């Protein structure tokens, strides 16, 4: 049962991760190439693949621009689906710590795939240091996938630890934690996503929740701590 | 390896094939050297078995990247050759051309390397490689049945890739 849910989550979330706060249905935006491909597949029509101008060099896109151009789902569907998943995990696993761990693992699996989509759509080049990375996550990443803007605060002295603050979180609409689940980090999937995504760009991090609105605080605060950068090594042992 | 005699005149490049494909072959690697994808459309000469061929290609790119980064006249870093680098950092080469083919290369910061070998008169293929990366994201990364780090076996990806490659000039 648990494995089935993981697949459902991955399929659903990986296919329609962007959400928008409105009552409208899924909308396909026709100026996005991947949306074109998908809608061509669905309708069975032949897509005219005129190649784009080859010599144009495109800079990084802003979160708003990408959010507007990518296909979106109904935000309520997203929130309710996530809620159903957490509820099912609680029923299956019963232990709140286990559920937290499982959510983090699911987020990690999403993050390792999400990073490619993020890099492909946003055209960002390699970030020079961790400060820039955190800014990019907060301004472009969160905006592109969840439709909310986060901010980065609380930098420590050597620039390896910061807090990402979310005022608005689409995952927790309509949610109240009951007394039996007081240790639950409801949005733990987000910490897994960030950890997974950063690991694929060779940064080992530790992501924890400092403040959580469902536990009575006024805001969501995620602490992201860079443990180390892992440079690329030649993978083959000998010169065979 | 073929050696052309002592003549200074290079042989004329082969004409594009009748099958309509403009590319010879394509490789995709991840950061651990696993060959995720290999496809050939027009490859008359094969000198090595597939495993050696993939290893050779990966090793070539790894060394070339390292070399080009160290030879960079504008960079301030004074690292030694062979010191591991973060993917995407420093300068990276994007293509090389010989008298019979052109090899275009793209690496994402997540370590996915895409290599496309085409005929030598092809223009700058950086946009094409970015488009192929987008195809990878749509049909492979978002495919829940695909396990990251394993060879790609997605029919949709193959079909769309073939279709796109046919349209590259």
Automatic annotation (TrEMBL), chain A:
InterPro entries: Bet3 (IPR016721), NO_sig/Golgi_transp_ligand-bd (IPR024096), TRAPP_component (IPR007194)
Gene3D superfamilies, A to Z: Trafficking protein particle complex subunit 3
GO CC term (a single one): Golgi apparatus
Stored SUPFAM superfamilies: Ligand-binding domain in the NO signalling and Golgi transport (SSF111126)
Keywords: Endoplasmic reticulum, ER-Golgi transport, Golgi apparatus, Signal, Transport
Source organism superkingdom: Eukaryota
Signal sequence residues: 1-18
Location(s), subcellular: Endoplasmic reticulum; Golgi apparatus, cis-Golgi network
Keyword flag Signal: yes
One GO term of the biological process aspect: Golgi vesicle transport
Transmembrane segments: none
Similarity section: Belongs to the TRAPP small subunits family. BET3 subfamily.
Record's protein name: Trafficking protein particle complex subunit 3-like
Taxonomic source organism: Punica granatum (Pomegranate)
TrEMBL record, chain B:
Pfam families in the record: Sybindin
Cellular compartments annotated: Endoplasmic reticulum; Golgi apparatus, cis-Golgi network
Record-level GO BP terms: endoplasmic reticulum to Golgi vesicle-mediated transport
Gene3D superfamilies: 3.30.450.70
Annotated keywords: Endoplasmic reticulum, ER-Golgi transport, Golgi apparatus, Transport
Coiled-coil portions: none
Example of a GO cellular component annotation carried by this entry: TRAPP complex
Annotated InterPro entries: Longin-like_dom_sf, TRAPPC
Family of the protein in this entry: Belongs to the TRAPP small subunits family. BET5 subfamily.
Subunit structure and binding partners: Part of the multisubunit transport protein particle (TRAPP) complex.
Designated name of the protein: Trafficking protein particle complex subunit
Source species of the chain: Punica granatum (Pomegranate)
């Amino acid at each position: 049962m648990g494995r089935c849910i993981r697949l459902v989550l991955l399929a659903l979330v990986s296919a329609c991760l962007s959400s928008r706060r409105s009552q409208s249905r899924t909308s396909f935006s026709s100026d996005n190439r991947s949306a074109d491909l998908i809608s061509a597949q669905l309708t069975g029509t032949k897509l005219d693949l005129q190649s784009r101008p080859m010599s144009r060099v495109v800079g990084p896109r802003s979160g708003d621009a990408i959010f507007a151009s990518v296909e979106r789902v109904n935000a309520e569907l997203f929130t309710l689906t996530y809620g159903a998943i957490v509820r099912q995990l609680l029923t299956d696993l019963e232990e709140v710590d286990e559920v937290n761990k499982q959510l983090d693992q699911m987020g990690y699996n999403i993050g390792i795939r999400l990073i490619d989509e993020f890099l492909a759509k946003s055209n960002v080049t390699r970030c020079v240091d961790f400060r820039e990375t955190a800014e990019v996550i907060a301004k472009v990443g969160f905006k592109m996938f969840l439709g909310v803007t986060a901010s980065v605060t609380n930098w420590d002295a050597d620039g390896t630890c910061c807090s990402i603050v979310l005022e608005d979180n689409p995952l927790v609409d309509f949610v109240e934690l009951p007394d039996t689940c007081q240790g639950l980090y409801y949005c733990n999937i987000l910490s897994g996503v960030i950890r997974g995504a950063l690991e694929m760009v060779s940064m080992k991090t530790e992501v924890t929740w400092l403040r959580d609105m469902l536990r009575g605080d006024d805001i969501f605060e995620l602490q992201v701590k860079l443990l180390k950068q892992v440079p690329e090594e030649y993978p083959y042992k000998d010169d065979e | 390896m073929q050696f052309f005699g002592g003549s200074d005149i290079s042989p004329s490049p082969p004409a594009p094939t009748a099958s309509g494909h403009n590319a010879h072959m394509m490789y995709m690697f991840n950061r651990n050297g696993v060959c995720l994808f290999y496809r050939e459309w027009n490859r008359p000469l094969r000198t090595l078995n597939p495993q050696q061929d993939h290893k050779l290609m990966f090793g070539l790119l790894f060394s070339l990247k390292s070399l080009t980064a160290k030879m960079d006249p504008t960079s301030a870093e004074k690292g030694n050759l062979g010191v591991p680098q973060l993917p995407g950092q420093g300068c990276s080469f994007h293509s090389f051309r010989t008298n019979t083919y052109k090899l275009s290369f793209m690496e994402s910061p997540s370590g996915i390397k895409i290599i496309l070998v085409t005929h030598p008169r092809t223009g700058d293929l950086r946009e094409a490689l970015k488009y192929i990366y987008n195809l990878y994201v749509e049909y492979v990364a978002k495919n829940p049945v695909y396990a990251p780090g394993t060879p790609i076996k997605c029919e949709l990806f193959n079909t769309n890739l073939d279709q796109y490659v046919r349209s590259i000039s």
